[in-house]
Specification:
Blueprint lengths: L5 E4 L22 H12 L3 E7 L10 H19 L5 E5 L13 H10 L7 E4 L2 H10 L3 E5 L8 H5 L4 E3 L10
EC number: 3.1.3.-
Protein name: D,D-heptose 1,7-bisphosphate phosphatase
Keywords: Carbohydrate metabolism, Cytoplasm, Hydrolase, Magnesium, Metal-binding, Zinc
């Protein structure tokens, strides 16, 4: 029986400002509200997991090494500011036909196996329909669509999937 719960986060648009294909440290900016949110999850015993599509790799905009260097930078920033890091970072560099690329649930299922997770007790926060669909496909019931300042034309489709819409991570925290 799985014993751990997790908070899954998409990267671009949730953790950091989405400037389109972010891969350089100088372009990476955390959203201020992310720190309080991730701290609350950590304090309540959640594993912290990033699940992110990174099609810029297959498109040739940057390399896996670039992505890994930026991920290490992100982890270093969190360690310095918060005293902890993400437990795991999963990414899919492909554009098509991958069980890992969201909306498929491969990254979430891999995290479940790697970290002994109970997905029924886990959360996912994403900013796109593909994030919410991946959570549904994996069996995560607590699905949050972070809209920030943008309008989602996908909301009608998402109504059939089930999610909760939020506009900021300010004050967002787990209830279980």
């Amino acid at each position: 029986m799985a014993k751990n719960k997790a908070a899954f986060f998409d990267r671009d648009g949730v953790i950091n400002v989405d400037l389109s294909y972010v891969y350089k440290q100088e372009d990476f900016r955390f959203y201020d509200d992310f720190f309080a949110c991730v701290t609350r999850f950590k304090e309540q015993g959640y594993k912290l997991v990033v699940v992110t599509n990174q099609s810029g790799i297959e498109r040739g905009y940057y390399t896996i090494k670039d992505f890994l260097l930026l991920s290490a930078y992100m982890q270093d920033c969190m360690q310095t500011r918060l005293g902890f890091t993400f437990d795991r970072i999963y990414f899919c560099p492909l554009l098509h036909d991958s069980i890992r690329r969201k909306p498929a649930s491969g990254m979430i299922i891999q995290a479940m196996n790697d970290l002994d997770l109970d997905l029924g007790e886990s959360y996912l926060v994403g900013d796109r329909m593909t994030d919410i669909m991946a959570a549904k496909n994996a069996g995560i019931m607590r699905r949050y669509l972070l809209c920030r300042d943008k309008q989602h034309e996908e909301l009608i489709k998402l109504d059939e999937i089930g999610y909760t819409q939020i506009h900021t991570l300010e004050g967002f925290f787990p209830t279980h």
